[in-house]
Design goal:
- With about 190 residues, the protein is α/β, with parallel strands linked by helices.
- The protein has a single domain, classed as Vaccinia Virus protein VP39 (Rossmann fold).
- The chain is about 40% helix and about 25% strand.
- It contains seven helices and seven strands, in the order ααβαβαβαβαβαββ.
- Strands 3-2-1-4-5-7-6 form a seven-stranded mixed β-sheet, sandwiched between helices.
- The longest helix is centred in the C-terminal third of the chain and has 16 residues.
- The chain is globular, with a radius of gyration of 16 Å.
- The mean pLDDT is about 95.
- The structure holds S-adenosylmethionine (SAM).
- The site of S-adenosylmethionine has 18 residues, from helix 3, strand 2 and helix 5.
Amino acid sequence: MNKQELHDFARKNWVPILRDKSADFLCKIIKDEQPKKILEIGTCLGYSGTLMLENSNANLITIEKDKDKSERARENFEQAGLSSRVEVINGDAGEVIQELLNKGEKYDFIFLDGPKGQYLFYLPILKKLLNKKGILMADDIYYHGWVKGNDYPKHKHRTIILRLREFIEKITTDEDFDTVLLDLEDGISISCLK
Ligand SMILES: C[S@@+](CC[C@H](N)C(=O)[O-])C[C@H]1O[C@@H](n2cnc3c(N)ncnc32)[C@H](O)[C@@H]1O
């Protein structure tokens, strides 16, 4: 599928790709910052990965747990003529980022868009994977708006919501980062490592 087909397929079939205004924002920040090495957590079908590659000359490592989605993403990158600049790793992001760290890998830009309940636990590893002045962008930090406020939800998303609140608390108080929170669609955090 090309980018537009991918976008339309995802919207029609409730596949959770980046929302439109957030996608515009991602394109702009990638265009402005021109990172050379990008890491993405949560490939899905390769929509956001395609946007990042089209707006830079970067190389991208992108991690997806679901085998079928990883394969479909590889096909989509191939069709877009981008496959020489991207590696899709099929695996659990928690394990893969630890392996990347053990190998001494570093990135200029990390796009965190994987399992929301794990952002908090990924944060210390992602911080070590960032180059100085590198940027960590996390999507869906307000998780349907439930993360805003302080009440304790009783529904099944409770753990994710409490962990995202803790993630926001950690990333906004970490003095090694300059962080801004954007109230755009489902909420985005942008953190620049000093
Ligand atoms: C919101 S979607 C990513 C959307 C994609 N970034 C885009 O905008 O095109 C989140 C993805 O993370 C994947 N995922 C969930 N848990 C994961 C894990 N533990 N490791 C890697 N990927 C995971 C899901 O299968 C899903 O495809």
